[in-house]
């Protein structure tokens, strides 16, 4: 049976790119590990944020479209993105959100306390303390490694057919069902980060793609060979799966599970340091080879962005 280690990355649609950078780098303290463009729309950034090393399981990516229409969170999407912080760090984050005038609420589920809030463009986020996951050594502003976000805690999935999505999580992706609470079913992968998936079992109205919504969730494959095995396995499990697509920092295959959520399976290698050094990742605009000849034009058309502390 195939088993994924957990989430590789999550990709969302947002608004103005500088507002996006200010929130995820400035407020949340994630590192901008790659500044590139959308392969299918090179006039749009594709921005990658993660821990200091850009490790799979920590990467949240964005297509920022300034002045685009607002989406609607609903069935067929990731509803909530969960980030994990070190034990004892939640009080720091509550104080930080209050100081930056970001409204938050708290809730307890599956014996864990969560701090829930929205980003600038309406994405639903939450923080949870856990022991697992490497310390994030990247430092910006007042955020130090003892409180810094380590990566994904997981995600809450909103499905148009929850029972079928649950079957896919267990029988295809290889997650283990841990239990049920209210209208949530919890699953876990074997990895140490990006490993907890909550599935809402109450069907919701259909989501609408736009600013403030998740485009897709990507699961981890160990390498190219493992991904080819995933491709065959997913196809044999009754899903239409794409050919392998080179995304420069990983290879990707895609399929839509039966609850209408777009799943990707992405390779851990080669990672984000193969075209920049680990020290300089995210500093320069990196273009796929096919767009390098258009660098000057693209540079002029893309909105300038700057990583800056909000402290």
UniProtKB/TrEMBL annotation:
Residues 6-130, 151-268 form the VOC domain. Coiled coil: none annotated. SUPFAM superfamilies: Glyoxalase/Bleomycin resistance protein/Dihydroxybiphenyl dioxygenase. Keywords: Dioxygenase, Oxidoreductase. InterPro entries: Extradiol_RC_dioxygenase, Glyas_Bleomycin-R_OHBP_Dase, Glyas_Fos-R_dOase_dom, VOC_core. It comes from Sporosarcina oncorhynchi. The keyword Oxidoreductase applies. One of its GO terms (molecular function) is dioxygenase activity. This is Ring-cleaving dioxygenase. It comes from the Bacteria.
């Amino acid at each position: 049976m195939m088993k994924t280690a957990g989430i590789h990355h999550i990709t969302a649609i947002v608004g103005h790119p500088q507002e996006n950078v200010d929130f995820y780098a400035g407020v949340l303290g994630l590192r901008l590990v790659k500044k590139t463009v959308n392969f299918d729309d090179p006039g749009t950034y594709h921005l990658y944020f993660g821990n200091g090393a850009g490790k799979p399981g920590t990467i949240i990516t964005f297509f920022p479209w300034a002045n685009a229409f607002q989406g609607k969170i609903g069935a067929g999407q990731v509803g909530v993105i969960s980030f994990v912080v070190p034990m004892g760090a939640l009080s720091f984050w509550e104080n930080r959100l209050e100081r930056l005038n970001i409204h938050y609420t708290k809730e307890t589920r599956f014996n864990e306390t969560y701090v829930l809030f929205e980003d600038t463009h309406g994405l639903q986020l939450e923080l949870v303390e856990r022991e697992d996951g490497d310390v994030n050594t990247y430092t910006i502003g007042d955020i130090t490694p003892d409180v810094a976000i380590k990566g994904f805690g997981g995600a809450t999935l909103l499905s148009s057919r929850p029972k079928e999505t649950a079957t896919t999580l267990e029988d295809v992706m290889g997650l283990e069902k841990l239990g049920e609470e209210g209208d949530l079913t919890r699953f876990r992968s074997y990895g140490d980060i990006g490993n907890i998936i909550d599935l809402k079992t109450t069907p919701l109205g259909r989501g609408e793609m736009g600013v403030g919504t998740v485009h897709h969730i990507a699961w981890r494959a160990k390498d190219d060979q493992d991904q080819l095995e995933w491709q065959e396995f997913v196809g044999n499990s009754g899903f239409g799966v794409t050919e392998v697509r080179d995304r420069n920092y990983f290879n990707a295959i895609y399929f839509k599970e039966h609850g209408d959520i777009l799943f990707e399976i992405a390779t851990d290698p080669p990672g984000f340091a193969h075209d920049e050094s680990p020290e300089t990742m995210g500093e320069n605009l990196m273009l796929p080879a096919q767009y390098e000849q258009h660098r000057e034009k693209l540079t002029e058309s893309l909105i300038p962005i700057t990583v800056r502390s909000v402290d």
